[in-house]
Amino acid sequence: MCKFKLFSIAAAALMMVACSNEDLTQQTQTKAGKMQFSATIAASSSGATTRTIYTEDTQNKKITVAWKVDDEIALIHDGVKDVATVKTVNDDGSATITGFITKADNGDGVEVCYPAALWDWDDNTKGAIRNATFIGNITKQDGTLNYIQDNLDVRMGEGELEVDGDKVTLNADVKLESHIAIWKLNLQDNATPTPAALSATQVKIKGGESVLASTTTLTAGTSVVTLAIPTYVFIDGALTIEATVGSDTYAYTKAEGPTFNQGTYYQSTVTMAKVVDPAKAYLKWDDGQKTLVATEIPAGATMVANANQDVNWAAGTYVVEGDVEINANITLSGNVDLIIKDGAKLTVNSYINGPNNNLSIYGQANQTGQLVVNSTDDAISNINTLEVHSCQVTATSSSNDCGGFFGIVTFNVYGGSVDAENTSTKGYGILLNEDGSMNIYGGEVKAVGKGTDSSYSYGIVGDDSSVTVYGGKLWAECAGNKALYSNVTLTKGAGFTGTIETSSDGSSWTEYTTTGTPDAQYVRVGY
Fold it and tell me: Pairing between strand 72-77 and 80-89?
């Protein structure tokens, strides 16, 4: 799957059991209180049979299974557990099972369970239950299909007994439904531009705080693990995958856990981030997980210091601790990552200028770091790709024909906040480059123009540019003119459920459903 397609699904032929009447073909010794039992368990209509020998078909992405002689099947009824055994496997894949069952009456219900050793009668539910051995096996898998085949292939179906003298069979077809899904995971890190395979020594899958499945120590380490997931467990909270790699832990989290369908085979490539000490980490958007993840601050990052003269930032990572003030211009001479730690603040009393380089701004776990740029020019300008991940950014211009942001080709906001403003009589909050775009995935964006001039005073300006909201919130305003320039297209991204609203006074709002640019002094999205 790409970074992370959670459901590259193919149906596994893991089910389908039918039973039919069949007299014993040989005499068996009658046991006290027991009756002779015989039935035929059929192959499924698809041609894949019911159980035990697993063969992975990588081309069709399915698992085929088949019965084998001596497989033991529990017959659980009326507080007792009897065991039948696969006697023969027939040419069509069906199997004849035989054994003894505790005396029963015609029409009595019975639960047919495989394998017999992993099922017991439960007095509380008055029915079959997977026993402690199965639960233990779920938490000590070795990451292979063979282990699942031998230890975790549990199935159950319900039927009725048909009694004829001292012989018993099942009176109708019964499906033995699998109680697991199988999930094959390819583990990789989130390195850019090319993720690397992770060689894990242990893998855990959690639903909320509960462990759904885990491995024992994988001594050789592997980047591909296959795990059985019990489908009868409700995932309460986020789904988390954890992998131990050397002395490090990597994790993937999905806020809304998936539903695992019984008897289904899944394959996923999981892009995982290293779990680090929050004090040594910053939050970065992970497009596969669609969330901010903790990422380790790289060694050798440059600490930002106070300055009263122009500053040049070459390509690299810059970190702000405490209160730092630069009373001059900052010019980028390469692509820059700026990390502002929780509680820290960088104040720039001039401007930050690309020119045409990339700038990514990050914060830490609490997203309280601040970048404040106060300018008599465009506060932050000429950036090719500008990203705000997890920081509070304020960009203010006090001059005519200028704004908080100017000449941004691609402006991505993933979290934190952006507050862009022009306080003069003629200016804008944000000016996107021609054919430029702003994409809001999270956080809050506010773009304000204070003027009345119809050619420059807007919240957001752009020539054939676009603003798309996938998440978070957007507020654009210019009380003296328009919130959005007429050539700025405002749309909602796929899956976004918030509304676009307009207002002439900033207090009374109307939902905007027309395609195009809202013609209003105030526009908000996601409120």
Answer: antiparallel
**The most confident of 45-59, 156-170, 341-355, 510-524, by mean pLDDT:** 341-355
Distance CA 481, CA 413 (A): 25
Residue 399 CA to residue 474 CA, distance in Å, equals: 24
Taking the CA of residue 111 as centre, how many other CA atoms within 13 Å lie in the half-sphere pointing to its CB?
Answer: 24
Domain hosting residue 39, numbered range: 12-133+142-173
- Give the mean model confidence (pLDDT) for residues 421-444: 96
pLDDT of residue 298: 93
Could you tell me how many helices (H) and strands (E) the chain has, helices first?
A: 2, 45
The pLDDT mean for the chain works out to 87
CA atoms 6, 10, 12, 16: torsion sign:
positive
Mean pLDDT confidence for 55-62 = 54
Q: Which residues contact 402 (CB under 8 A, 6 or more apart)?
A: 375, 376, 377, 378, 379, 422, 424, 427
428, pLDDT greater than 60: yes
Residue 6 vs residue 252, higher pLDDT: 252
Collapsed DSSP state (helix, strand, coil) of residue 486: coil
Q: What is the pTM of this model?
A: 0.64
Tally of domains within the chain: 2
Amino acid identity at 475: W
pLDDT at 334: 97
Asked whether 40 and 173 are in contact (CB, 8 A), the reply is no
Stated as kind and residue range, the H or E segment containing 346 is strand 345-348
**Sheet strands (E) in 441-517:** 444-449, 458-461, 465-469, 473-477, 482-484, 488-492, 500-503, 510-511
Q: ∠ CA 323-325-330 to the nearest 5 degrees? A: 130
CB 249 within 8 A of CB 243: yes
Does residue 159 lie in a domain region? Answer: yes
Tokens of 147: 């282990």
Closest CA to 458 of 482, 490, 491, 441: 482
156-176 burial code (b ≥16 CB/10 A, e <16): bbbbebbbeeebbbbbeebbb
Domain end call among 152, 173, 194: 173
In a domain, 196, yes or no: no
Distance from chain centroid for Cα 288: 7
Residue 44 lies inside a defined structural domain of this protein = yes
- Six-digit token pair at 237? 């909270």
Q: What phi, psi does 196 have (nearest 5°)?
A: -110, 150
* Beta strand pairing call for 323-326 and 336-340: unpaired
pLDDT band per the 50, 70, 90 thresholds, residue 58 = low
User: Concatenated DSSP letters for 358-413?
Assistant: EEEEE--TT---EEEEEESS-SEEEEEEEEESSSEEEEEE-STTEEEEEEEEEEEE
**392 within 8 A of 368, measured Cβ to Cβ:** yes
The two tokens of residue 441 are: 């995935």
For residue 392, being part of any structural domain is answered with yes
